[in-house]
Specification:
Strand content: 5-15%
Largest sheet: 9 strands, mixed
Distance between the termini: 85 Å
Order of helices and strands: HHHHHHHHEHHEHHHEEHEHHHEHEHEEH
Length: 537
């Protein structure tokens, strides 16, 4: 009886691994209804092979790999609404640990790392022991042969299912049972190979740029300052999701009135971001480089290619280019490839107030302070300001204070000490959504109050969302973000042909373009006359 129980428990462990889902939407009791075809292959295979050296270890490692892939997929679907790619996404482990450290502290983060490593070792030992239990049955030779025959039969069945779903061949109906875990693992291997090929193709594409040698670009700006302001996690959900739209639309309507009083015109449209839930740099790269940087591999290939960003063209047109980056707290050598003359990270922004956990300073402080950080220069400015108050985990959220009270930032100290802590907030998804609503609304308020105050200087201002929040927050898989352009009416008339909506609320039926289209469209719209796209030829 003890052996029977041990065999049953061991089979249940392997079964659990094989039916483990890789998507939050698949977490349901009916998942247990799947019959994994790999289960009889593994268990009968162990009976047939016996306790041969290393066999149980190899199979346990393969099962552990399947667990890692599924858990990684689960996390990526929750955060970014896509699967995990081993080539492109491994670096996210470091980024996630950095965010965890800022949210809960260094010691808990170290404990999480140690606990994760220990859990992986424990899982391996449990899986190896489960397989060894079946390998230790030690039946007669005839039974081993029978077990081997049945294992091969089930393996063929699993291969038939795999080929059917990969469309290597087609049956009228899918074979009973499922080799889903095998298919998932093989699919990741195929994706790795395809990713390597795609990166090579993308690198070649990045090295081709019909605008690279053009002369006279951006002359229609006539030396007017240009400011690109990124609002973190500001996407179409602010307009479509009833949890957020009433709040955010009211803020935008108020801002429309104030900006119109300043004499500036407004146009708004939609761009599709290459990412959602995070990885803002992919959106920044796509918009400014004109390349579809959907993952870190393509982003790295783009940086290495020497492809010109919008800021390079601004330099060529006589602009001083600057990046105001309150989220940058460490070295940022890749900025050298982006066309910035100057990068102002968090350490160079004179904020003396308390941090808002991961968020180094409130957006209002950044917007109130950055103009004074720029030394005197005869050149006009073309700059990027990347705001971060609406970055997850959305706690604590600052209040808007009178602009003349911002000072050195200590006015925000009490707000920075507010709860709840991220670990408490994120236990309640409804609370997370409400915190997201309020943090984005804060960012919209301070951004457009600042823009309205720029009216006397009449710059051209671009306000863009970088990506939608994570799927469970945004409420959809849509990756569209709102983009607003604000400036003198005669200048904004140059983009009439884009079909954007007047004001700060883009039409729901308005045109939607990919974010990588913006660079070339912007260069074309704000360049007078027909210029040779290859002036050097």
């Amino acid at each position: 009886m003890r052996r029977v129980v041990a065999l049953a428990v061991s089979a249940a462990v392997v079964f659990a691994v094989l039916v483990l889902p890789n998507h939050p939407g698949a977490v349901a009791w009916n998942t247990l209804n799947r019959w994994p075809l790999e289960l009889p292959v593994l268990l009968l295979g162990m009976v047939a092979i016996g306790r041969r050296m290393g066999v149980t270890y190899v199979c346990a490692l393969l099962l552990l790999l399947a667990i890692v892939i599924k858990v990684a997929d689960f996390g990526m679907f929750s955060a970014f609404n896509r699967t995990f790619n081993p080539i492109l996404d491994t670096f996210l482990i470091g980024a996630g640990l950095s965010l965890l450290r800022e949210s809960v502290g260094g010691v808990p983060t170290v404990l999480v790392v140690i606990g994760t490593a220990g859990l992986l070792v424990l899982l391996f030992l449990v899986l190896e022991r489960s397989l060894r239990t079946w390998a230790s049955i030690g039946p007669a030779r005839s039974l081993r042969v029978t077990a081997a025959f049945l294992a091969l039969l089930c393996a063929g069945w699993a291969a038939a299912d795999t080929g059917h779903h990969f469309e290597y061949w087609r049956f009228d109906k899918s074979p009973p049972g499922t080799a889903w875990t095998t298919r998932l693992t093989l699919k990741r291997g195929i994706e790795v190979q395809q990713t390597a090929t795609e990166l090579a193709r993308f690198t070649a594409e990045a090295n081709k740029d019909t605008y690279a040698n053009s002369a006279g670009l951006l002359n229609a700006l006539e030396g007017r300052d240009v400011i690109l302001i990124w609002i973190e996690s500001y996407g179409r959900a602010s307009f479509d999701n009833p949890l957020y739209a009433p709040t955010h639309l009211e803020t935008l309507r108020v801002a429309e009135f104030e900006i119109a009083r300043s004499g500036m015109a407004m146009k708004s449209g939609w761009l599709t971001s290459p990412t959602s839930g995070g990885q803002s740099w992919l959106a920044h790269g796509a918009l400014a480089s004109g390349l579809w940087t959907t993952d870190s591999g393509r982003y790295t290939a783009m940086l290495a290619s020497g492809h010109k960003w919008l800021f390079h063209f601004a330099q060529d047109a006589g602009y001083r280019t600057t990046a105001i980056m309150p989220a940058i707290t460490m070295g940022w050598p890749e900025s050298l490839a982006m066309g910035f003359d100057t990068v102002i990270p968090a350490a160079d922004i004179p904020y003396e107030g308390a941090r808002f956990r991961w968020v180094t300073m409130p957006d209002q402080f950044t917007l109130a302070t950055y103009p004074a950080l720029l030394p005197a220069d005869p050149r006009p400015d073309f700059m990027q300001v990347a705001l971060i108050s609406s970055h997850a985990p959305w706690t604590p959220i600052p209040d808007v204070v009178p602009w003349d009270k911002v000072g050195n930032g200590t006015v925000f100290n009490e707000m920075a000490a507010r709860g709840p802590a991220p670990k408490d907030l994120w236990r309640d998804r409804d609370a997370v959504r409400d915190a997201y609503r309020r943090s984005v609304d804060y960012a919209l308020q301070v951004t457009f109050e600042h823009v309205a105050d720029l009216g006397d200087n009449a710059p051209l201002v671009i306000v863009a969302g970088d990506h939608q929040a994570a799927g469970f927050v945004a409420g959809s898989d849509n990756k569209d973000v709102a983009v607003h352009m604000i400036g003198p009416p005669d200048l904004l008339s140059l983009i009439d042909h884009w079909g954007w909506t007047d004001g700060l609320v883009p039409s729901a039926e308005g045109p939607v373009r990919r974010m990588d289209s913006f660079r070339n469209n912007f260069l074309d719209a704000f360049t007078h006359a027909q210029l040779s796209k290859m002036a050097g030829q």
